[in-house]
Amino acid sequence: MADSPLKLRVSEDMKSALRAGEKQRLGIIRLILAAIKQREVDDRSAGSGTGHPQGAQGGRAMEGAPQRIALDDGQVLAVLEKMQKQRRESVSQYEAAGRQDLADQEHFEIGVVQGYMPAPLDEAEIDALIATAIAETGAQTAKDMGKVISALRLKVQGRADMGKLSAKVKAKLGG
């Protein structure tokens, strides 16, 4: 399977940052690629159960062992969202500790990561998606919130904060 277009874009940006001598930008782009590769390896390891007892091949490497998986754009976005969330948390901790220099570095990194995210949804679009998801799932009460969130997750991935989205869904369902 080929690499996702988003991963290819990050790789190309790394090359251009390297050529331009943008050390700070290059650093975060390398972190992004490392996180993506880590996820590829982790996902491969999690799905590597072959059903053969260890050593069934006489100690040789199993020829049918799974190859490194390639993430699709949705999975790459999930990695980027996680990185962005970690950096937001770091900013608040650095600011509380009076370390503005480190907070500024995290803000810069958030900006680079955000450059790879799709355009965020505005409030009206979010409200319309929530209304559609509630209608599609037949949700009536806050107990049905999980169904609504599941229906929304792929539609809003990388474009809306899931915490804020959950609060809006809960409010609409009377929770």
How would you explain this protein's 3D organization?
The chain is mainly alpha-helical and about 180 residues long. The protein has 2 domains: about 5-50 and about 70-115, Hypothetical Protein Yqey, Chain: A, domain1 (Orthogonal Bundle), CATH 1.10.1510.10; about 125-170, Arc Repressor Mutant, subunit A (Orthogonal Bundle). About 65% of the residues lie in helices and about 0% in strands. The chain has helices spanning about 5-20, 25-45, 75-95, 100-115, 125-135, 145-155, 160-170. Helix 3 (about 75-95) packs antiparallel against helix 4 (about 100-115).
Top keywords for this entry?
Hypothetical Protein Yqey, Chain: A, domain1, Arc Repressor Mutant, subunit A, mainly alpha, 175 residues, 7 helices, 2 domains
Short description:
The protein has 175 residues and is mostly helical.
Secondary-structure element order, N to C: HHHHHHH
Output the CATH homologous superfamily of the largest domain: Uncharacterised protein YqeY/AIM41, N-terminal domain
- Write down the Rg: 21 Å
Main sheet attributes: strand count, strand direction, barrel closure: none
Shape: globular
CATH fold label of the largest domain: Hypothetical Protein Yqey, Chain: A, domain1
- Strand percent estimate: under 5%
Summing up helix and strand content along with how strands pair, one would put the structural category as mainly alpha
